[in-house]
Amino acid sequence: MKLLLLTAVLSCTLLTMENMQAQDWAQLEHFREANSDLPALKDNENRVVFMGNSITIGWQHAMPEFFENNPYVNRGIGGQTTPQMLIRFRQDVIDLQPKVVVILAGTNDIAGNTGPSSLKMIMDNIASMAELARANGIAVVLSSVLPAEDYPWRPGLRPNEKIPALNTMIKDYAAANNFIYLDYFRALANSKNGMDKTLATDGVHPTRAGYEIMVPLVKTAIKKALAQT
To answer: Which residues form the SGNH hydrolase-type esterase domain (predicted)?
Structure first.
């Protein structure tokens, strides 16, 4: 009986471990092939990697020409939180040898997509990505989190209060460490610290009109970051 029980416990443990391995929590497989297929850097190419979540990858879907007509590489994955991005940062940013990385992260942490997370935890992960980039000779643009009055998929978490607080932390950290701070929030926010439907139909993910506001802001930030290289 004891042997049967022990066998059952071991089987469950092995099954759990296999499931954890199969999950690929940070989604390292997502861009592995695309990274391998990425053309070699050209002489004097100012490659820029955009690291982020659905707002970042949504930009490529809503405005593909922005990435096609510039040396920009989009590495956004929908739903991701900062610990997931940190795990894949070497593979999806550092190994691509960009001159600049634009980091836009944090809203899914506030939404609790991968469990509870404090603002300090979010900031620590963003700081770790920025410091990894700098250690590898990559200039950094730290983006503010975009406005959100509430999350349609998880209402009641008060992102319209937490996002401005996180943005203050990001801005202060950027200033203290000579990183470029990119303020999307001020350009997109309405009086409720959300986004109007013309800019984000669901209040979170920008429409093309929303991205059109973001384009000149990020281009200016990239220019400043390139001046640091």
So the answer is: 50-213
Cβ atoms of 91 and 28 closer than 8 Å: yes
Tokens of 193: 């610290």
Secondary structure of 52-116 in the HEC alphabet?
Answer: ECHHHHHHHHHCHHHHHCCCEEEEECCCCCHHHHHHCHHHHCHHHCCCEEEECCCHHHHCCECEC
Nearest to 27 by CA among 96, 79, 100, 99: 79
Distance CA 133, CA 52 (A): 14
pLDDT at 8: 43
Label the pairing between strands 180-182 and 139-143. parallel
pTM of the full structure: 0.90
Q: Quick one: which of 187, 107, 119, 118 has its CA closest to 149? A: 107
Which contiguous run of DSSP H or E holds residue 167?
A: helix 159-177
Distance (Å, whole) CA 208 – CA 31: 24
- Looking at the DSSP bridge assignments, the partners of residue 75 are 51
Let me know if 171 is exposed, middle or buried by CB neighbors in 10 A (0-12, 13-18, 19+): middle
CA 193 to chain centre: 20
Residue boundaries of the structural domains of the chain: 45-226
Arithmetic mean of pLDDT over the chain: 93
pLDDT in tens, 4-48: 444 443 344 334 334 544 699 999 999 999 999 999 999 999 999
Does residue 147 register a pLDDT over 70? yes
Determine contact, residues 85/127, Cβ cutoff 8 Å.
Answer: no
User: Contact at 8 Å (CB) between 81 and 114?
Assistant: yes
